[in-house]
Description:
Layout: H1 2-21, H2 34-39, H3 41-58, H4 65-89, E1 104-108, H5 118-128, E2 132-136, H6 140-152, E3 158-163, E4 176-181, E5 188-190, H7 192-196, E6 207-211, E7 218-223, H8 232-244, E8 251-256, E9 278-279, E10 305-309, E11 313-320, E12 332-338
Parallel strand pairs: 1-2, 7-8
Antiparallel strand pairs: 1-12, 2-4, 3-4, 5-6, 6-7, 8-10, 9-10, 11-12
Helix pairs in contact: 1-4, 3-4, 5-6
Amino acid sequence: xxxxxxxxxxxxxxxxxxxxxxxxxxxxxxxxxxxxxxxxxxxxxxxxxxxxxxxxxxxxxxxxxxxxxxxxxxxxxxxxxxxxxxxxxxxxxxxxxxxxxxxxxxxxxxxxxxxxxxxxxxxxxxxxxxxxxxxxxxxxxxxxxxxxxxxxxxxxxxxxxxxxxxxxxxxxxxxxxxxxxxxxxxxxxxxxxxxxxxxxxxxxxxxxxxxxxxxxxxxxxxxxxxxxxxxxxxxxxxxxxxxxxxxxxxxxxxxxxxxxxxxxxxxxxxxxxxxxxxxxxxxxxxxxxxxxxxxxxxxxxxxxxxxxxxxxxxxxxxxxxxxxxxxxxxxxxxxxxxxx
Length: 340
């Protein structure tokens, strides 16, 4: 009887391991709780290794050796598969290549309202040489403060902004998203459907910026709702909306997607991760570097902040900044070059 129980447990453990490692195969990457578990691949790897150590200890008990050996094999296979996925996406690059005349640097940082002082954001924009800056949960007033500081340092940027429910005094900062764009990229404006919310993410705003003269990439500053149990349907809707913002053409998406590339598996087209857009960090050695929460080491965190670009751009480097400066998100910086 105990042997049958052991076999059943091992089979169930193997199935659970397969689902946790690659829920996309089972079409469960958007289903609670698998969507939450696959997001923390670093923690999953540690869990598999802990199970393997426990199985090694059980091998010392003669009656349990067969069961322990089976569990050990499953745990090692799960850890190995998780490690291979991590290696393929990258556990962390720390430098960007030298800028070229045609390169664009994109910085995204969920500042958690006013948790990050405006001067700190301005310092990082200058240090990283950012041309496009997506700032979910940053107010327009703070964006303007940042722009003034940048102008004084010879790095002017235009400020664009979207706010849900502007009629609510002192509403949540999560109802606001601010975008800064270098004048070198031309003039941009936020499209009307972003401003009035008729086409936008559901409960926290994204911003779609179009070049006024029609040249240059369309810029989408992204903020999707988090996949809490009660908001899973809205989260799935937000991800689909984001994917729809990158049809064939010239697009750059940046912001807090509240999703990893695992969650994007059914949303990519023709090699893209979200629509035709491709995730830059996972293609430049930072795909597993967690941007949230900043209280955890990056390898144990969740990479939910992204910069993505259409195929006419090639990502050549990315950096996750260590110092979150008070936010619960780390900033991500990506360098893009025109393809070809």
